[in-house]
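Backbones bend. We report:
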Amino acid sequence: MIEPLFVSAAPTAPAASNAPVAPAAGVEGALDALERDGFLLIPAALSREETTLVRTRLDHARAQGWEEGLNSVGNMWFDTLLDREPETFARLVGHAAVKPLLDGLYGRQCQLRSLRGHINPGPYVQEWHLDFYGYWQERRALAGRRMATAPVGVNTTFYLQDNLPGSGRLTFLPGTHLREPPHLYPHDFAAFQVWAERQPRVELHPRAGDCVLFLSHMVHRGAKDDDAMERSNIVCHYQACAMHEAVWHVTSPRGFAGTFPFARD
């Protein structure tokens, strides 16, 4: 089993340097760090061969026109990779490098929500954002619901190139997994960006094959500092489902979409 590593760094001023990497005390120590910091850096999660294979097949997907689009900040995304080429991309789901961590978080309730590929073909500076915007809203909605459980998501992002200082980065706003940021409900995009720019931050520079596991409601952004660099990654989003497919029940579940009668109330 790959020994997890985690990023351990105090918040820095907005002009952040790369956070140091230190070994964790096994899986439990890594999970303690995840709860404390909101993210983990797992170096060399993919082998060199795996990294090359996934990068090559993601480039093939682009050549085939499988992308969903290219947005205004320079992010091209692919949502059908797992359906089109499971022999390549299924290996990233519950990958051996992250399995002990996901198991420690969710056990048998670990459910893949989505697998998405990204390519940043030109200039790219992402907006400050959360992947799980509804986290705090959903927590409040649990009030008075006796059997409801709080939803918490994580993602594993596998990097396919070196994001060295001066070329590429991933930046977190520390503590935003523990306290609700302002300007979310209602969402004021401009005010949120202004607020985020003024916060301390931690900057990571993952290398090819590294994985970053983080809580999906933590504020973050990716960026390229060298417009000419190749930058791509694969993101797996996970969530907990207590009634998983192996649970002992007299009936089989109907699936996901259309089975939540009160979700739109």
Summary: The CA atoms of residues 153 and 239 lie 5 Å apart. Residues 48-63 form the longest helix (16 residues).
